[in-house]
Amino acid sequence: LPPKPPAAFHEQRRSLERARTEDYLKRKIRSRPERSELVRMHILEETSAEPSLQAKQLQLKRARLADDLNDKISHRPGPIELVHKNILSVDLQTRWLGVDTALFCNRSCRRLLSNFCKTSCCRLLHGFLQSRT
């Protein structure tokens, strides 16, 4: 077995590593970007709130965005309205429902409505598709 190096050697090595780390961190701090640069790069938010309130401000902003999105989704037109306005074609509508257009004869449609969906939306689509054929 080789002899153990003296404790002074370990202490010197530790202090050298510590000095190297300290120099590295000082260089990083000197070359770090300004706050305005971080805002421009969208890393930091531009805000006038105190740092202790910034997290709550961001949370409130996200909650407002989520509420706004939910409101817009709840007011968007349904598939029947899109078909009536000729925004969505009948073929695309039936594909959206997962139904082949060839199934839309009277008997198949009744079976489809009884098995697939009994909502007024499906019955409206059925009536609309019948009126177009």
TrEMBL record:
Main location: nucleus
Keywords: Actin-binding, Nucleus, Repeat
Gene3D superfamilies in the record: 6.10.140.2040, 6.10.150.10
InterPro entries recorded: Myocardin-like, RPEL_repeat
Residue windows of the RPEL repeats: 23-48, 67-92
GO cellular component, one term: nucleus
UniProt superkingdom: Eukaryota
Gene Ontology biological-process entries: positive regulation of transcription by RNA polymerase II; smooth muscle cell differentiation
Subcellular localization: Nucleus
GO MF entry, a single one: actin binding
Family per similarity comment: Belongs to the phosphatase and actin regulator family.
Subunit note: Binds PPP1CA and actin.
Name of this chain's protein: Phosphatase and actin regulator
